[in-house]
Amino acid sequence: MSRLGRSGTFGTFRSTGLAALCCMACSTQDETTDRPLARAFDQVLHWSELRQVVPLDAAPTDSAALAQQFVENWLRQQVILHMAESNLSTEGIDLEDQLEDYRRSLVIFNYEQALVDQKLDTAVSEQEISAYYADHRANFELKDNIIRARWFKVNEPDKRTVRKMEERFLGGKSEQLHELELWLAQLGVSIVDRSGSWIPGSELRAEVPITDTEANELMGRNGKRVVRNGSTAWFVEIIEHRSQNELSPLDLVRQDIRSILLNQRKLQLISGMRDKVYEQARENKDVEVYAQ
Fold it and tell me: Does domain 142-242 have CATH number 3.40.50?
């Protein structure tokens, strides 16, 4: 019979222990009586461990459900852990050392994070951002064309109607544009407005069926264009553009620079703290190197 079968843990707990456990979860157990509730191989779950996850003010049905779920999860975890410890080769691996290294790293990380949360100055001035931007221009070269633009698409088989729209769109007069906007609203045509923020040129290329060469020409100049394909026409206005390998606009990288500056402050704060506490320990003779 397998080791799991010999334990009988799951079957025994479900058949005989669940009802009693539910009652215990709903009652006010004497905390001094830390009775065992379940066993998995050589590990025993006690009442005190269950009590930590079952609120005293919970309704009886809620308490029973929480207790059942906690014990079931505990049993499953112990079974998997037992099988892993029994079958996993640990040759050349010191798990205790690894766990201790992890514990130390976690304690240090939590302390340093608390220090950062308490003492880090998160105010970054526009002057600091501009200075970093100017000093690190090579780090902010564009990987793609970017634009600020507006566009809309019209499906209209009547070429005369499209020409009238084009006249108003390219005319540039406010009354013509207003008339065009009313016309589009009646047709249920929405205008995609990306004029307030920079977008990659690929977003426009995904909307307008043109070749890469045509796209580069279109996005390489400010102004309005109409692109036709059969009975469909795309009306595009390039408000501003930057080409690949040019310097990114500051607006586009401002938040990145702020994050960089804050991370630098964080590292400086942690490094300064480490140096300070180490020097204090040396002065207090809390640390020393023994002569060999």
Answer: no
Tokens of 144: 């793609």
Q: Return the domain boundaries, the chain.
A: 3-87, 103-138+248-292, 142-242
Where do runs of H (alpha helix) occur along the chain?
Answer: 3-7, 9-12, 18-26, 47-51, 60-87, 95-119, 126-135, 159-171, 174-187, 201-207, 212-219, 250-283
pLDDT in tens, 144-184: 889 999 999 998 788 888 888 888 888 878 888 888 888 88
Per the model's pLDDT, the better-predicted residue between 118 and 14 turns out to be 118
Beta bridge partners of residue 247, listed in sequence order: 141
Tell which residue, 57, 52, 44, has the closest CA to residue 70: 52
pTM: 0.64
